[in-house]
Amino acid sequence: MRKVLIAIFLLIIGFLVWYIFIKPNDYIVTLKAKTNPGTINQSIKLWSDNIGNSSIQQDDLYNLNQKIQFGDSIYNYNWNIKKTSDSTSKITVGIKDLNHSIMNKLSIPFGTTDFEKRTKNTLTDFSKKLNEHIENFKITIEGKSEIKSTFCAYVPMKGKQIEKARGMMKNYEMISSFIVQNNVELNGKPIIEITKWNQDTDSIHFNFCYPIIKPDTLPNHTIIKYKQLESKHALKAIYNGNYITSDRTWYALQDYAKKNNFIIENTPFEIFQNNPNLGGNELKWVTEVYLPIKK
């Protein structure tokens, strides 16, 4: 009996040492979302940028580390995202108060602390914004398709993914006016061709293209260039929603490619069927989104 009591005592001491001094988080929250990990990843970053006193680093698409300052405390949020089905994901957030971790661990088992309340309120705010975002777009995977060849006038740009639509709007009037003034005939809807996508930094190099009928003589412009877009086999999806967040479809197509054993090129291609300047219900805006398939 004495040995059993000693063993139990040592187990209790070992657990307390682990719980107070080794356990990496003070508190863990689990959330569920009806969307893909890429959308969640981008939503966490956007939310972090908008709450103030927050910084975030990404280990990979599924793991992020965020620091948020509340008064004299700095909270560390470790985000883990896991795809659980074709349409759902699980989000696990480990939270630690870097300044008062031991006190939190000692207090949490005996009542609801201010730390718990603040954490729940903060993550409830994130969950609400994520769900509002998910309701504002729709992605429909169509499967294997083809990007058709076309000749185009284009403007090369680079920046963050979220700046893509702003770059389009900035150059929309310039390209369309130039085409009209030089009697060049349009041959399709505006296109975004991503030529480089750094998923660690969310940065892209892209061409904003207008398909045109190639004239005998190409009018010169200091910014506008010309190129032939070649035909490619690709995976296709339809995105309904604001063009600012059409990149959510890129991640959905990546998931589809992985599930169906397609080897893809991470150079998305988008064709915009609606003019956002005309307004209207964004869920009725249509973007054809493609990810090229490697041969």
Write up this protein.
The protein has helices at 2-22, 37-51, 101-107, 114-135, 164-181, 248-259; strands at residues 27-33, 54-60, 63-70, 73-83, 89-97, 138-147, 150-160, 191-198, 203-211, 225-229, 232-240, 269-272, 286-292. The strands form two sheets. The chain has an eight-stranded antiparallel sheet. Strands 1-5-4-3-2 form a five-stranded antiparallel sheet. A hairpin with a 5-residue loop joins β4 and β5 (89-97). It is elongated and about 95 Å long. The chain has six helices and 13 strands. The chain is α+β, with helices and mostly antiparallel strands and 295 residues long. Mean pLDDT is 88; it is low at 14-22.
